[in-house]
Design a protein that fits this description.
Strand content: 25-35%
Structural class: mainly beta
Shape: elongated
Helix content: under 10%
Strand order of the largest sheet: 1-2
Distance between the termini: 31 Å
Number of helices: 0
Radius of gyration: 17 Å
Order of helices and strands: EEEE
């Protein structure tokens, strides 16, 4: 997530995920410890218009 806080709960375990982190929630499995999000990709050299698909 990019901003704020989220409480994630499952299988009697609760964690807080803050901005810049992510977690995985699967049915009947405790939530995974938050990990830092990857940096956003640099798309500044991406063409604005594609004439043909690659």
């Amino acid at each position: 997530m990019l901003s704020g806080l989220v409480q994630v709960e499952g299988e009697k375990k609760e964690i807080t995920v803050s901005a810049g982190f992510e977690t995985i929630a699967v049915l009947d499995v405790p939530p995974v410890a938050p990990v830092k999000l990857l940096s956003a990709p640099d798309l500044s050299n991406t063409p604005v218009l594609y004439e043909h698909l690659p």
